[in-house]
């Protein structure tokens, strides 16, 4: 039976504790107040976004922070991934590869 593909959505304040837990897995010790602030700022700012990946059990299995930069010398914008974390067990399930 194939593993269900996680769904993605914008991160919200209620996600902060689980995002902190995901960030801690690879060693990022980010305080919850910083995560909450950055989620709030990303909701207000058109240049930033924070998303979470949710599995079939409504658990956060990954998170990503994005930033868009205006290119002075070119038309258009450049996207930058500022954070990307996939839950350790999710790596074995190939989460984040689709």
Outline the low-pLDDT stretches.
Answer: none
Largest sheet: spatial strand order: 1-2-3-4
Largest sheet: 4 strands, antiparallel
SS class:
alpha+beta
Our estimate of the beta-strand percent is: 25-35%
**Arithmetic mean of pLDDT:** 87
**Secondary-structure element series:** EHHEEEH
**Count of strand segments:** 4
Verbal overview:
It is a single chain. The protein has 98 residues and is of the alpha+beta class. Helices cover 28% and strands 33% of the residues. The chain contains three helices and four strands; from the N terminus they run E-H-H-E-E-E-H. The protein has helices spanning 16-24, 32-44, 88-92; strands spanning 7-10, 48-54, 60-70, 77-86. Strands 1-2-3-4 form a four-stranded antiparallel sheet. A hairpin with a 6-residue loop joins strand 3 and strand 4. Helix 1 crosses helix 2 (32-44). It is globular, with a radius of gyration of 14 Å. The two termini are 17 Å apart. 21% of the residues are buried. The mean pLDDT is 87.
What brief labels describe this structure?
single chain, 98 residues, alpha+beta, 4-stranded antiparallel β-sheet, 33% strand, globular
Describe this structure in a few short sentences.
The protein contains 3 helices and 4 strands; from the N terminus they run βααβββα. The chain is an alpha+beta fold and 98 residues long. Helix 1 (16-24) packs across helix 2.
């Amino acid at each position: 039976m194939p593993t269900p593909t996680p769904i993605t959505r914008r991160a919200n304040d209620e996600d902060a504790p689980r995002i902190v837990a995901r960030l801690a897995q690879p060693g990022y010790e980010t305080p919850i107040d910083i995560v909450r602030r950055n989620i709030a700022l990303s909701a207000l700012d058109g240049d930033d976004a924070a998303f979470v990946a949710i599995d079939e059990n409504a658990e956060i299995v990954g998170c990503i922070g994005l930033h868009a930069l205006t290119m002075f010398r070119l038309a258009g914008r450049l996207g930058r991934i500022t954070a990307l974390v996939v839950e350790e067990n999710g790596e074995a399930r190939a989460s984040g590869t689709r």
